[in-house]
Amino acid sequence: MPASSLPAAAGLLSLFLAGPALAGSFVFGDSSVEQGNLYVLPGFDRTGSPYYAPDGFSRESNGPVWIEHLVPGIAPSAGAAAGSREVNFAFSGATSGDDNIAGPVTGTGFGAQIDAFAGRGLRGRPGDLFVVAIGTNDFIRDLGSRDLTETSAEVIGNIGAGLDRLADLGARRILVEDVPDFHLAPAFAGLVPPEDQERFNAIMHGVLDRHRTDQLAALRDQSARPGAPDIVTVRVSRLFDHVLAHAAALGFTNVTDGCYDEASGSLCSTDRAVQNTYLFFDGLHLTEAGQRLQADYYRALLGQLAGTAHALPQSMTSFARTAGDQIAARARDERFAAWADPAPAPGFSVSADGGAGTDDAGLAALGLGWSDGPGWTVRLDIARHDGRLADSPGSSDVGGWSVVASGERRLGRFRLGASLGTLTGRAKGFRTMPVALMRADHKADIDSRFAEISAGYVVTAGALTLQPAAWLRWSDSRIGAFTEHGRTGLEMAFDEVSTSGLLGGAGLNLRYVATGWLTPWASLAWEDRLSGFDGDIRGRLVDNSARDITRPLARPEGTGELRAGVDIGLGPNATLRLAAGATTDQDQSAYARVAWRF
Predict the structure, then answer these.
(1) CB 507 within 8 Å of CB 525
(2) Which helix (H) or strand (E) holds 119?
(3) Looking at domain 312-597, which CATH architecture does it have?
(4) For residue 531, is pLDDT > 50?
(5) Considering the entire predicted model, what is its pTM?
(6) Are the C-beta atoms of residues 403 and 422 closer than 8 Å to each other?
(7) CATH no. for 24-182+210-245+287-304
(8) Cα 293–97–46 angle (5° rounding)?
């Protein structure tokens, strides 16, 4: 009987599904990914069986295998046209060596598949993807007849030698599947007496877990060699664990039996929808429903290799910077009010704020101010900020505290101002994957600082006051290093991200004293980057042999803002401000402030 592991199938399918368009796709492996190479050989005809074979090439499933979902048009090497660069060299029953557990078949092992690649005159090109899903059949072959630690060492050695050959043939990125707990598949259900099943499962899990650890270490060392290709470990074992843990929610009503019993020829149903409620089509191989889940998994993996997960720290960095921008804008509202007052009363003032904005943003603040009357005004504001990161798959809530010290100086009609602010907080949440119910949790520290200087001029015309102004602001943002947690095999770890730069802005504030107690106002402003804000986001897959993935930080772009409000006198010593703002980045905010002078 042709055999291969459930893991193998899981791996290949998904990896082609994901990521950017590939220049070429080449697959090496066993029945988990093969498209019928074995079944065109003499003695392996399966005509009349329920296996999927619309083109005469029999798959080990009731539908297309994952690689066909991932790379439409990929063909088995036995049927691929000359010159094709989308070729599947996998054979059912293939091992990492030369033999085949399906029978006395030569020329089907991992090394022979590489020979077939070279024999077609093929060489790797930039952007090509190579997939290796091999090794499970070695363990199946040796189960009960050999020390599996010896099998493990042999598999690791054979795969390493094959990867060196592929590198010599031009491969620059190779995805290598690990071996899942294949002993949980239906084919192994009666291998030991029921009373020994739990102990058998524990022993096998220990052996395979040790193998996965040793193989990961070997692949990591191999990938780190000068000139070596990027070797990425595909943790199909984690995918298999996830599917078994969430089977019912994923639509599987049976994960212990195969829909098709090859020995008796019985089939659970001729209805493919019913078949796909089973995880396994036969004793070892997945139904098309399982294949599609594997495709989702590889889509996620290839996306992360392309940098999609970097959107999370990018969003954190943008939040830190824009939060500082909004804090500075609120301080500017106070500055314009102080500048416009022709004769501020000397003494102290206190204020309380509450506000809300885009992305579930919330604000609560207290402030203390002092003025000498005609010359100086200073303030200190402390605020609590809460919100949710935008453009991040999943949910990431942020919270923190800001402290802003600011002051103004009047020199005739000229005005000067300065602000210093800091925001310290934390993001906590999770990132979702394309695989249903799969997520990774994270926590990260967020810090932002800014310093702003501004200058303006006050023009009065009756009850109308116009204040043209310009400012420079230095902004610095830092996201602490963080590692995602979970058991998806897709978790990322990110280095600390730090970026700073200089922004310049100009604006116009208009205020109209409608009555002695009502002053509507509006501000128009434009800000743009003058320099800096360079940097990279460097991340890596956790417990993986893949190299670091680095992507440049997105720089801030020019942003326009409209802010409008009304200051309402509540008596000789109290004022209520109602204000709202919107930016060309489609951010909105609103807040209320009550201030008392004494």
Answers:
(1) yes
(2) helix 110-119
(3) Beta Barrel (2.40)
(4) yes
(5) 0.88
(6) yes
(7) 3.40.50.1110
(8) 55
